[in-house]
DNA sequence: CCTCTAATTGTAATCGATTACAATAAATCT
DNA sequence: AGATTTATTGTAATCGATTACAATTAGAGG
């Protein structure tokens, strides 16, 4: 590949002038610019981002850390991030942590090593101290999941309110024995949605029963099935289920179906996230919709501001309860 | 952030020695190594990948281009790529082209600009000439979708055979009016699977009817529904459907259900890819499974070999027909 | 204690760009 | 024309690492 030196020689100018053409500085004469552009074309030259980045000490790369790309919840967020990033001249590196501390270390080092300029963090399971420490010296924003005590900016929704409204909806359609399929409570959203669930129960003087609570380990369909199986095997079976993720709710739906019960008459089901598949289930799934694309855009804007050294403020966006056939 | 110079000064050695410690050269005395490591620790130093990359003229970054991250088909492939890449000391940049030529240009330039060392290409819709031209000078491999005429290495499956077997399976369970929901035939897999479909028809002396073929535009659930709606509205409705993607098949399933027909008795359905959702539908979906994780691993290995200047050979991997409730 | 070889360490060039500052060319003004 | 200002272009330092080669130090042998 050609370098800027070769272009300069071919065009009969200095490297500085070539660089000026590249960065379209207005201080270069039209005829010179033309010569340089000819040379660039002739040599099929493209500037090395390596040299430029070293000089400017930036990489124009954003690290996006997600627990798992297979969860459709993240795809819209990522679209938002990518659109915004490209618009601002950044590219993104999408990295799946798999909640694996070794990967975490690798990816965090990409920022320490200046391979990336900042991190959009969506993986809540990552070692808290590491994150806080990294945030001391490098730009980080949290998206969706965040650390309430920390001082790291975030964009998310009001999970407690959303869960409260979802459960209240179930109560209003006459359900009282409402089961709760939750994630591991190390996740903030899990704790907050649980609080919302309990708040609704308290408001209607219903008692929160441990037997109707189930915490899954892995966020996939099978966990939802497994959870529902356990819940159905009880003497006093629930008449509704609130799952903290559509993926779990769909697994539950499947299991209810397998046991010959009807949704929503026997058991109503409500999920969370409004993933696109949630409209394809039988029956279609009632769910809580989050403004995922916007969350992505906002977190990208936030991290870029942070990289530029500007101040940013955390935000909580609006959610919406989408009532469909399953309730 | 500290630089190698500061570490050298603090440790009382030259930058060369620090570099040697960093790259654990064996020509450094144990006591010196210790001093340097102390300094590194004290300054919380991490080497800048920018400087190193410039010097080594490599980025250790692999570009992975996919049409859309929301298609679950790709997630397993990506896992394979990522695992292999990390193991070989590479990181990946996952990029969604959205089949958008502008994005294509941006991402292709990342290789030209040496921001990435090579490309794993899964987006078939990209301008063919651009790809071939880029492949002249830069490492590219194709995964899943590929260019038969080109000379670019690929890893994929035998789509024609897989489709042939799928359709034959439908014929064997007594179906004769087999509809075909296909993608745009600009895609190789679409053309090949169509060939397989026709081959099965010919073998059983069945005539391929245009009215049972439907080409979708966008690969999502809604397209599958739309396609099925059209197929059902015909006087002579099909008794089976072969869709080239589970996503489409699931949409079709939904539509069949909505029209009150039974799967598989009235209409059998078969998909392609074995995405994880396909086991959550009602009824569960018969589908063709591809070794996606392995495809990912192999394509990563191939591109890394190419980057190192080694020769690589294209491969076709084995597929498998997974028979479930929908047929 | 001195020589000679082997083991360490240091010096300085290099990768490919950007940019402050200096130098030159062109344009404007007396 | 000559002086002065302005527009263009060039020179060389710089970013942070790696590494060939030179220089130094240490160890072995006499």
Automatic annotation (TrEMBL), chains A, B:
Keywords attached to this Swiss-Prot or TrEMBL record, sorted alphabetically, are: DNA-binding, Transcription, Transcription regulation
- Fetch the InterPro entries from UniProt: Cro/C1-type_HTH (IPR001387), HTH_LacI (IPR000843), Lambda_DNA-bd_dom_sf (IPR010982), Peripla_BP/Lac1_sug-bd_dom (IPR001761), Peripla_BP_I (IPR028082)
Q: What is this protein called?
A: HTH-type transcriptional repressor CytR
| GO MF annotation: an example | DNA-binding transcription factor activity
- Keyword field contains DNA-binding: yes
| Entry annotated with the keyword ATP-binding | no
Query: The HTH lacI-type domain covers which part of the protein?
Result: 2-56
Q: PROSITE patterns in the record, alphabetically?
A: HTH_CROC1, HTH_LACI_1, HTH_LACI_2
Q: Where is the HTH cro/C1-type domain?
A: 3-46
């Amino acid at each position: 590949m050609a370098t800027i030196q070769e272009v300069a020689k071919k065009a009969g100018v200095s490297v500085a002038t070539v660089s000026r053409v590249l960065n379209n500085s207005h201080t270069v004469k039209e005829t010179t610019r033309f010569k340089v552009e000819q040379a660039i074309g002739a040599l099929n030259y493209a500037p090395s981002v390596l040299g430029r980045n070293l000089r400017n000490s930036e990489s124009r790369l954003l690290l996006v850390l997600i627990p798992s790309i297979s969860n459709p919840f993240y795809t819209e967020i990522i679209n938002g991030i990518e659109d915004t990033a490209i618009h601002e001249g950044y590219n993104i590196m999408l990295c799946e942590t798999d909640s694996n501390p070794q990967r975490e270390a690798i990816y965090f080092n990409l920022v320490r090593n200046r391979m990336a300029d900042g991190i959009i963090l969506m993986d809540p399971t990552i070692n808290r101290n590491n994150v806080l420490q990294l945030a001391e010296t490098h730009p980080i924003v949290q998206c969706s999941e965040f650390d309430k005590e920390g001082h790291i900016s975030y964009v998310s929704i009001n999970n407690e309110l959303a869960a409260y409204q979802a459960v209240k909806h179930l109560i209003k359609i006459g359900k009282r024995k409402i089961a709760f399929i939750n994630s591991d409570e190390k996740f903030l959203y899990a704790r907050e949605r649980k609080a919302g669930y309990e708040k609704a129960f308290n408001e209607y003087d219903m008692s929160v029963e441990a037997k109707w609570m189930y915490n899954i380990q892995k966020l996939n369909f099978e966990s939802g099935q497994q959870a529902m199986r356990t819940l159905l095997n009880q003497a006093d079976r629930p008449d509704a289920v609130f799952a903290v993720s559509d993926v779990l709710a769909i697994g539950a739906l499947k299991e209810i179906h397998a046991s010959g019960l009807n949704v929503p008459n026997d058991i109503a089901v409500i999920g969370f996230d409004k993933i696109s598949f949630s409209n394809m289930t039988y029956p279609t799934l009632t769910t809580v919709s989050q403004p995922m694309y916007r969350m992505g855009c906002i977190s990208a804007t936030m991290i870029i501001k942070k990289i530029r050294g500007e101040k940013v403020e955390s935000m909580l966006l609006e959610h919406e309860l989408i009532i469909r056939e399953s309730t």
